[in-house]
Amino acid sequence: MSSEFHQAISSIDEIIEDARNGRMYILVDAEDRENEGDLIIPANFATPEHVNFMARHGRGLICLAMGQERAHTLNLDMMTRNNRESMGTAFTVSIEAKDGVTTGISAHDRARTIAVAIDPTKDHEDIVSPGHVFPLIAREGGTLVRAGHTEAAVDISRMAGLYPAGVICEIMNEDGTMSRLPELIAFAQLHNLKIGTIADLIAWRRKNDRFMERRVEAPLDSGYGEGFRTVCFRNALDNSEHIAIVHGDITPDSTTLVRVHRMDVLSDVLGENGPRHGLVERAMRVIADAEEPGVVVFVNTMRPNIIAERLGLKPSVAPDPTAPIREYGVGAQILRDLGVRRMIYLSGTQPTRLAGLDGYGLTIEGWRNLHEENN
C-alpha cells in the first residue's frame, strides 16, 4: 500500500468509535482474498435509510452477519450442505420478518427483518424463509480464524459494545465492476465515511484480545535434566491445547532462551530427516545447560488431514491465510503469561522482525542457531 493510500486509512480505534456512534464505515480485505470493500453498519443501528444507501450506492448484496449462537436460535439452515464458494462464506437460507413487512424488498421491510433477526426476545417463530435478507454466519473466533468481512462486521460490533452483528454490502462501481482501493478511498471521501482494513483489525485483536488460558502446571521428569516443568494452555477460540516446557525462574528482567515450535508428528516423533530434524532436542539441551531461564512452546497445529497432506495428499481446501497469524498469537500470549519479556530466540534460521511483537511487550535481543549446536 502506497503512502498516499495509507494516509487515507483510519485506525481500528477510529472505526470502533464510529461503529459505537451508529455511523457506517468501510472495511477492505486483503489483496490475496477478494481485495474488495464492504459498507458496514452495526445491526443495532440499521435503519431503512442505511439499507437504502447500501442499495443505491453500494450496489452489492445486502447481508446480515451474525454469530453461530444467534443463527442456531433462529433455526437457520445453510444455503448448501457442500459450500464450494471460493472464500467459504457461510450463507444461510434467506429470511423475512413474519410480521410488519409487505413485499419484503423495500428498505423499510429489510430494516424490519434485520431488527427482528437480532432481537433477543425473538426466535425462529418470528421469521420466515425465503426472504430478502441474507444471513451470514461468522466463524467462532472472528477474524483471528477467518479474515472475512462477515467476521469483521461481527468483531467490530462486539468491540464497540453492541450486539455482535452487522449489515454488510459490497461496493461496486457505476459500471458494475468491483471497487478496488483507489475507488474505495474516493467513495469514502465523497460520503464522509471512514475506511479501515481487515489486516489492521486482525493486528488490533492480536494485540488486545486474550484467548490463551493457563490450565494446569506440573513438574516434568525429563531426560534432559532436572528443574523442568510443563504448563498446559487452552486456546479459547478453538479449544486446542498447547504446552510450554519451562526451565528456571522467568522474570521480566531476565533474558529467556525461547523456542516456539510448531508440533509435527513426522519430524518430532518419527525423526523425519529435514530442516526441522532434531531442533527440539537441541533446544532442550541448550536450555538445560544454560544459566538463563528457558522455555520451549509447542504450538498445536494438528487438524484433519495434516499428516496425509505432509505425505503428499492434495489439500481438499485452500490453505488458511490466517493460520500463521493464529500461531504467532498463540506463542506470544503464552510467553507473556509465563513472564517472558526479553528473549534469545532458538531457531534453525535467523528470525525476521515480527511486526506487532512489541504489542505483547516482547523483545528479541538475539538468536542462537540450533543447527550449530552439537548433536
Overview of the molecule:
This protein is of the alpha/beta class. The protein folds into two domains: 3-207, DHBP synthase; 212-372, GTP cyclohydrolase II (Rossmann fold), CATH 3.40.50.10990. It has helices at 3-8, 12-20, 48-58, 68-73, 107-118, 149-159, 181-190, 198-208, 265-269, 279-289, 306-310, 323-337; strands spanning 25-28, 37-42, 59-66, 95-97, 127-137, 165-171, 194-197, 212-219, 228-235, 241-247, 255-262, 294-299, 342-347, 363-369. The strands form two sheets. The protein has a seven-stranded mixed beta sheet, with helices on both faces. Strands 8-9-10-12-11-13-14 form a seven-stranded mixed beta sheet. Strand 9 (228-235) and strand 10 (241-247) form a beta hairpin. Helix 3 crosses helix 5 (107-118). The radius of gyration is 24 Å and the shape is elongated.
Write a compact overview of the structure shown:
Helices cover 30% and strands 25% of the residues. The protein has 12 helices and 14 strands. The strands form 2 sheets. A 7-stranded mixed β-sheet has the order 4-5-3-6-2-1-7, with helices on both faces. A 7-stranded mixed β-sheet has the order 8-9-10-12-11-13-14.
